[in-house]
Amino acid sequence: MAGEPQTDCLFCKIVSGDIPATIVRESDTTVAFRDINPQAPTHVLVIPKVHYPDAATLAAAEPQIAADVLREAGAVAADEKVDGSGYRIILNTGSGAGQTVFHAHAHVLGGRGLQWPPG
Length: 119
Ligand code: 5GP
Ligand code: ZN
Known about the structure:
Blueprint: H1 10-16, E1 23-26, E2 30-34, E3 42-48, H2 55-61, H3 63-79, E4 87-90, E5 106-110
Antiparallel strand pairs: 1-2, 2-3, 3-5, 4-5
Helix pairs in contact: 2-3
The structure holds guanosine-5'-monophosphate and zinc ion.
Guanosine-5'-monophosphate is lined by residues 10, 19, 21, 33-37, 45, 92, 98-101.
């Protein structure tokens, strides 16, 4: 069923606690944890607890939870004190864009200068 946990999904296993992560925030519908391979001083992933393969699919099926992900991304930036200097929310979608984990997630990057356009 749409949104159900997937046995072969890394981020579903982080939601269930089967794989450890450094969790920095949690809400009823989301978990935020530090990226294992950080690309900036602040690099946190915000994921929905439900499984959808990417952000747009999540938003189409569960718009309120997609909004929760964005709200929590902003809250992470405030917690990490990068909201003043600026931060970036990234939603890689598809392998050609660098998506490697096919459970929707928002990257929150901050704490250093961020170039535009991104690579
Ligand atoms: P994507 O490339 O799909 O947009 O982002 C996936 C992110 O998940 C990558 O930045 C990668 O470093 C991170 N990641 C992969 N495996 C793990 C893990 O086991 N734990 C954590 N905390 N992050 C992971
Ligand atoms: Zn999943």
